[in-house]
Amino acid sequence: MEKYEHEYNADQIQVLEGLEAVRKRPGMYIGSVSIRGLHHLVYEIVDNAVDEALAGYCKNIHVTIEPGNIIKVEDDGRGIPVDIHPKTKISAAETVYTKLHAGGKFGGDSGYKVSGGLHGVGASVVNALSEWTEVTIQRDGGIFQMKFERGKVVESLKRIGNSEKTGTTVRFLADSTIFETLEYEYEVLENRFREMAFLTKGLNITIEDTREETPKKANFCFEGGLKSFVEYLNKNKEKLHPTPIYMEKEGDFPIEIAIQYTSAYSENMYSFVNNINTVEGGTHLEGFKRSLTKVFNDYAKSHNILKEKDNNLTGDDIREGITAVISVKVKEPQFEGQTKTKLGNSEVAGIVQTLMNEKLAEFLEENPNVAKAILEKCVSASKAREAARKARELVRRKSALETTTLPGKLADCSSKNPEECEVYIVEGDSAGGSAKQGRDRRYQAILPLWGKMLNVEKARADKIYGNDKLNPVIIAVGAGIGADFDITKIRYGKVIIMADADVDGAHIRTLLLTFFFRYMRPLIENGNVYLAQPPLYKLSKKGMEDIYCYTDEDLQRNYKELEEKGIQRDQLGLQRYKGLGEMNPEQLWETTMNPENRILIKVTMEDAIKADEIFTLLMGDEVEPRREFIQANAKYVKNLDI
């Protein structure tokens, strides 16, 4: 990694304002106080270390989850400056951890060439939201340490020893009075740090969880960069060409792009700016898409794969089955919004497009067999797109003509306000009948489905329109699918999947979630999809109100509480619900549909890359990875109906 030659001392640490508001409004700075916000604390500290790697100084980052949910992040970068800051009159290190918007990442005369942490709030926010924070710095021949409690200094920076090494070690305990939970999820952090290592070629990131007797540990270092990233993303997919197409540009505006086509029907494109995942895309992704469409059409015409009279392939045709990762490093990126999820720099599109026009065209000319395989898939996608268009128009005409008829067997609600309306997609006619009778007709709609539906992971859009299982879902939701999906047109604020608590029910849930993920993803991203949780058991006794238990742990807890009241297990009747149809309308309402009692699980998507991997694994064409997954996780199965 080329080093960015620039002074990095107290003069580069700029102070914009104080730290008062963080503890009062933590959500403004880390998104939420849920487990997602808790993980965000770790990302903020690790991002600072990664910025040192981007500057060419840090080679190793070690993250440890210690017993008691203490986080330790060690890096071998330059170490935070320890000299006195000219404005604050305290050490630069203390300034970084106690002043909001203080850091070495503002403007052209900063200590960093490129950086993900642009607002200078990361370290101070972590400090403010932690019960305690301890920072140890090795720099300038010494070891320096400072300690804080809930953002307040308890030990100012002092020299505690000598060292010829450089780097920063941060230990902190998140504040239990702020966060809903302090229990970190190792797998979530592991996935994030794997992604970071892919994006910073040669950086070594280690994560270790020492909370249990048997520690967990993973180490990530990828000399292949984005090429390795794409290979990882496609590990469970059938590839059209064995090696990803790789393009790179160094200099003042580094760009790295990797592309590989698979036999899948969905497109998976991930874009990053200074290692920030720009989930809403931006100018770098726009330049990539424009060039991809142009280069493939130019090649297809010049090699007679498309005749002059043929229409050009569309961007959707060319992106079917693509896995692509685009990473750019921008000195002064302009993001749309505080969330930094969409790049706005207009000049970036042209620079990406220029690189793609040259390098991709060159690759296709040098690899005609790969070009032919990809374009055959693109042409096939074009034909399927036309078939899908006709099917879509047919559905639109049909629904327009049948405005008084509800789609499928949908029993709609009387309210037309999407914010209060909810639709239950129910497995089976009998359960659907109970749900229709037990519901609140004012705001609850019921759509019964029966039998196994189409696995969209193995089907193109033209097979979905008109499908007797999925078409009622499309019409009921009312917002279209795929590129036509419009979240503002949804008819229900909550789309609730209600299936039996058995293997078949789990399969139906997975099929529906795969459909929503591939063709109505904004529905999940917007938080509109839920899973109903019907009870597993009913405990009953004459003269006692029935008790419903939703988990095995719930059952054991109720047994124990009843025994404390003198009611023994052998005095109780136990019913195991294997299907929704076993409950009468009143029971289904009381246990699963009544907002005052029901348990709904919101389907969220913390990590789109991990979600894509899981859906591909469970529902894709490759059998062996699925077999390995089942064998590895069989020991965790508690209820299996045979």
Can you walk through the features of this model?
The protein has 642 residues and is an alpha+beta fold. The chain has three domains: 10-220, Heat Shock Protein 90, CATH 3.30.565.10; 226-384, Ribosomal Protein S5, domain 2 (2-Layer Sandwich); 406-534 and 601-636, Rossmann fold (3-Layer(aba) Sandwich), CATH 3.40.50.670. The protein is built from 19 helices and 23 strands. The strands form five sheets. An eight-stranded mixed sheet has the order 7-6-5-8-3-2-9-10. A five-stranded mixed sheet has the order 11-12-15-13-14, with helices on both faces. A five-stranded mixed sheet has the order 17-16-18-19-23, sandwiched between helices. β13 and β14 (276-277) form a beta hairpin. The longest helix has 34 residues, at 368-401. The N and C termini lie far apart (56 Å). 42% of the residues are buried. Mean pLDDT is 86; it is low at 105-109, 400-404 and 635-642.
Could you give a short description of this structure?
This protein has three domains: 10-220, Histidine kinase-like ATPase, C-terminal domain (Heat Shock Protein 90); 226-384, 2-Layer Sandwich (Ribosomal Protein S5, domain 2); 406-534 and 601-636, 3-Layer(aba) Sandwich (Rossmann fold). The chain is 36% helix and 20% strand. The protein contains 19 helices and 23 strands.
For the biggest β-sheet, the strand order reads: 7-6-5-8-3-2-9-10
Span of the ends, CA to CA: 56 Å
Most strands sheet = 8 strands, mixed
Helices and strands: which structural class? alpha+beta
CATH homology-level superfamily of the largest domain: Histidine kinase-like ATPase, C-terminal domain
How many structural domains can be distinguished in the coordinates? 3
Radius of gyration: 28 Å
Which percent bin holds the helix content?
25-40%
Count of discrete alpha- or pi-helical segments spanning 4 or more residues: 19
Can you identify the CATH class of the largest domain? Answer: Alpha Beta
Annotated CATH topology of the largest domain = Heat Shock Protein 90
